[in-house]
Design a protein that fits this description.
Layout lengths: L1 H26 L10 H8 L3 E10 L19 H10 L17 E13 L3 E5 H4 L4 E5 L5 E10 L4 E6 L21 E6 L7 E12 L9 E4 L11 E3 L5 E8 L10 E5 H14 L5 E2 L2 E5 L2 H7 L7 E6 L5 H4 L6 E5 L2 E2 L3 H10 L5 E8 L2 E8 L1 E2 L23 E3 L2 E5 L2 H7 L8 E6 L4 H4 L7 E5 L2 E2 L3 H13 L4 E7 L5 E7 L2
Antiparallel strand pairs: 1-2, 1-4, 2-3, 3-6, 4-5, 5-6, 7-8, 7-10, 8-9, 9-12, 10-11, 11-12, 13-20, 14-15, 15-16, 16-17, 16-18, 18-19, 21-22, 22-23, 23-24, 24-25, 24-26, 26-27
């Protein structure tokens, strides 16, 4: 039985090998082993790729390498270690940081970068140089030059450095990442595992990849080998133009498994230009809070097919307010560019010049309208706020009404105090959510305030029930709620009315 099963398998393998051999002999395409131009690209650009060396002084923690190891009494090493650690202590037998604390120590790291200007300007990742006390650029021939930081953008993980060259430099130029096609060959050059200039090649596996690492995710995915130390290095096309900056990998082991990500050159060029000009990023600002248009929300708003970015809130001091954009509007086009989802809108707004007047196409109550908006500048304030806990008052008996799996009550002073709801928030407060309801699945919770139902303001549970009943009669499958938290931040939630 076994022999009879294996023999045909061997036959099939033999025939397959013969077929491949015949194919190779008569019609092997030039690109079967990869493009012949990789060596030409590497030779052309290798001197423009640099290593980025950083050092940082950190406080050593007790219990680390500076701590006296525990040894058995009478061990021959006991005297040696005792003398060693005593000699490392400061005057008086204690270290500089205290009697038992070890002295600060320096840590070093290596990454990659590339020269974009022969005057001495290089690009790398922000995480390569973050918190560094000293940054050095190491050229391909080993020349080490101290560098200064021009500016960083944490949201795209990019940084620009400048240094004074001691010899003529080779610089590379940016290509157009929008022209990349799936399957195009690309070349990555960097400093993996501190080995020095290393060339790898692969193809473009995907474009516009969103991996939820930041607000403007739109990565090029490649299977070119990228490892630790490649961060900040360039990704080239076969013309020798930089079409991306290698930034991230997905790997359970820390080594390449063929899933690497690069910031596309279209994004890099805009960021680098602003960092060189201003030392910081000046992004456009629309002044709205947005969320996805789900199938249920699209059905409620009569939008077919589902698309765009739903405006959940409008900043009172933002550019959208005077332009007439309101919560419930769906942005489908911005400055002539289609908006398929909220990430599209975030990216295109951020890339638009501050102060530019743009046309914003919205859908309101099933009809398209055009609003003209003068973009403001996005600020990046520290949003960390200390939460202060207060004792909640004892629960009171309330007059509530049930609808949509929710216990609802009209807002009053006691409820505002209990759920910490600002005076500016108006509507009907949720006091309980049925655990088996659609509302619970959509993460509604006690303390949420329903401001509108089907784009009409409500002030009582009866108002909500009335609107739901009418929607059922009209044959609607879902109802669109405008929900606020205690601080007045709005979002839209579509609930089933069936």
């Amino acid at each position: 039985m076994t022999a009879a099963t294996i023999a045909p398998t061997r036959l099939r393998l033999g025939l397959a090998a013969l077929a491949v051999s015949a194919f190779s002999a008569f019609s092997a395409p030039a690109l079967a082993r990869g493009p012949d131009g990789i060596a030409d690209v590497a030779e052309k650009v290798i001197d423009a790729v640099v290593n980025i060396s950083t050092s940082q002084t950190v406080e050593a923690k007790g219990g680390g390498s500076n701590t006296m190891p525990q040894l058995p009494p009478g061990s021959p090493f006991e005297e040696f270690f005792d003398d060693f650690f005593k000699n490392r202590k400061g005057p008086g037998g204690g270290s500089k940081g205290g009697e038992n604390s070890p002295p600060p120590r320096k840590t070093n790291s290596l990454g990659s970068g590339f020269i974009i200007d022969t005057s001495g300007v290089a690009v790398t990742n922000n995480h390569v140089i973050a918190d560094a006390d000293e940054i050095n650029v190491i050229l391909n021939d080993g020349t080490k030059i101290k560098a200064e930081l021009v500016g960083v953008d944490k949201k795209t993980d990019l940084a620009v450095l400048k240094f004074k060259p001691t010899k003529p430099l080779v610089a590379v130029k940016f290509g157009d990442s929008d022209k990349l096609r799936l399957g195009d060959w690309v070349v990555a050059i960097g400093n993996p595992f501190s080995l020095g200039g290393t060339v790898t090649a692969g193809i473009v596996s995907a474009k516009n990849r969103d991996i939820s690492s930041g607000p403007y995710d739109s990565y090029i995915q490649t299977d070119a080998s990228i490892n630790r130390g490649n961060s900040g290095g360039p990704l080239f096309n076969l013309d020798g133009d930089v079409i991306g900056v290698n930034t991230l990998i997905i790997s359970p082991s820390g080594g390449s498994i063929g899933i690497g990500f690069a910031v596309p050159s279209k994004t890099v060029v805009a960021v680098v230009d602003q960092l060189r000009q201003f030392g910081e990023l000046r992004r456009g600002w629309l002044g709205v809070r947005i969320q996805s248009v789900t199938d249920e929300i699209a059905e409620s708003l009569n939008i077919k097919p589902p698309r765009g970015a739903l405006v959940a809130g409008v900043d009172d001091k933002g550019p959208a307010k005077p332009a007439g954009i309101e919560p419930g509007d769906v942005v489908v086009k911005f400055d002539g560019k289609d908006v398929k989802d909220p990430k599209d809108l975030s990216r295109v707004v951020a890339d638009t010049a501050v102060g530019k007047e743009v046309d914003v196409v919205i859908i309101r109550k099933g009809k398209e309208e055009i609003k003209k908006v003068m973009l403001g500048r996005l600020q990046d304030p520290d949003k960390v706020q200390a939460a202060v806990k207060t004792d909640e008052p004892a629960p009171e008996k309330l007059v509530t009404q049930k609808a949509l799996g929710l216990d609802l009550a009209a807002l009053n002073k006691d409820l505002r105090t209990r759920y910490k709801i600002k005076e500016s928030v108006k509507g009907v407060v949720v006091t309980n959510v049925d655990a088996n309801s659609d509302a619970a699945e959509k993460r509604l919770s006690a303390g949420d305030v329903i401001v509108e139902v089907a784009q009409e303001a409500v002030s009582s549970g009866a108002d909500i029930q009335k609107r739901v009943d009418q929607l059922k009669k009209d044959g609607k499958k879902s109802v669109l709620l405008l929900v606020s938290n205690g601080d007045g931040e709005l979002r839209f939630v579509a609930l089933s009315v069936q």
